[in-house]
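Structure first, sequence second, as always.
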């Protein structure tokens, strides 16, 4: 087949895909109507995961799991938008990694609100100005984000999903030759994470200029000759900045875990869940040991245990933020909830991604 014939073939397939996608949207529309009458939630991450797992098993062609996921996550977000337009707040500015995490779940069609700090995201979710919020919870190199944990302790908010994301940096700029670059903009932690690259390619012949965010860096580099930015892909795209080098970070295993939060949404059980709780454990000898032993007895695997100051008057008391395997409706989890009553605050059960 020549190029024209091949393109004709693609056009035919696209017409069929479009027809099928429209058919799918009609069914989604009916699901939306059912959900409205039964007053249930639109976003069902466990159903979305089930669909992707199923398609991956069915797949006989060359599409990888990541490709199937990318295509279908976009279809789901268009579907959800069709059922009910969603507003999503994320930790800005535009082009941040949290923006990238938000887009990976809510696609290109949702309405996004970039906010300046984590507290503002919790405020707008709690007051229902937005349906969902996206916040970082931990980085595998730098540890937990204390502000997110503190907000989870204080608010009436549920965790709907976790989103792990590899953090990659690019060197992006308008210059086509490295010798012409004399200034590199970025955020302090991004410079620290790309030290080897900078030493190998630039030595000490460039000015490294720290700015508030990597997307600000991309913006500045897009306005200046001889400048470049260390920034994410999404920030480079936002400012039409050509990517010169990809994956320039020193550690290839740099990952951040984000939470999608919402008010009062509780997911149904899937075949692979995780639950997050906040525990106020008795301040007495053996209090923590007894608590942990209960998990052992119930054969519940803990994934994370982190203490945070409870910030009650001048005392040194602590909350524990705990992630464990399983859904809150599991009988063994229920026995723990019953035993500890108000000492445990349930923050959410969601499909396990990490
Ligand atoms: C259509 C539904 O609603 C949403 C959209 C989905 C889809 O497009 O397949 C899947 C789960 C939900 O997030 C559903 O619950 O089945």
């Amino acid at each position: 087949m020549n190029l024209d014939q091949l393109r004709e073939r693609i056009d035919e397939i696209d017409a069929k895909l479009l027809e099928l996608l429209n058919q799918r949207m009609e069914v989604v529309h009916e699901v939306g109507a059912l959900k409205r009458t039964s007053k249930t939630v639109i976003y069902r991450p466990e159903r979305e995961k089930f669909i992707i797992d199923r398609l991956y098993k069915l797949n006989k062609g060359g599409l990888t799991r990541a490709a199937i996921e990318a295509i279908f996550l976009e279809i789901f977000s268009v579907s959800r938008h069709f059922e009910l337009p969603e507003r999503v707040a994320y930790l800005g500015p535009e082009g941040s990694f949290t923006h990238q995490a938000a887009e990976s779940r809510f696609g290109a069609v949702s309405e996004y609100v970039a906010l300046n700090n984590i507290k503002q995201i919790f405020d707008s979710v709690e007051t229902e100005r937005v349906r969902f919020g996206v916040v970082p919870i931990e980085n595998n190199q730098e540890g937990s984000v204390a502000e997110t944990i503190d907000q989870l302790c204080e608010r009436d908010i549920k965790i709907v999903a976790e989103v792990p994301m590899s953090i990659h940096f690019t060197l992006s700029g308008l210059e086509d030759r490295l010798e012409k670059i004399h200034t590199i903009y970025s955020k302090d932690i991004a410079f620290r994470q790309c030290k080897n690259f900078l030493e190998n390619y630039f030595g000490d012949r460039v000015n490294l200029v720290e700015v508030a965010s990597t997307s600000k860096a991309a913006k500045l580099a897009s306005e200046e000759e001889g400048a470049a930015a260390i920034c994410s892909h999404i920030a480079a795209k936002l400012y039409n900045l050509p990517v010169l080098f990809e994956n320039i970070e020193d550690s290839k295993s740099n990952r951040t875990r984000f939470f999608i939060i919402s008010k009062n949404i509780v997911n149904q059980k899937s075949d692979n869940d995780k639950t997050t709780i906040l525990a106020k454990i008795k301040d007495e000898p053996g209090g923590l040991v007894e608590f942990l032993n209960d998990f052992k007895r119930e054969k519940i695997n803990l994934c994370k245990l982190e203490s945070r100051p409870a910030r009650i008057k001048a005392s040194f008391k602590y909350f524990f933020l705990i992630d464990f395997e399983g859904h809150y409706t599991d009988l063994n989890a229920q026995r723990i909830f019953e035993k500890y009553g108000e000492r445990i605050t349930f923050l959410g059960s969601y499909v396990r991604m990490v």
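Margin note: The first strand starts at residue 87 and ends at 91.
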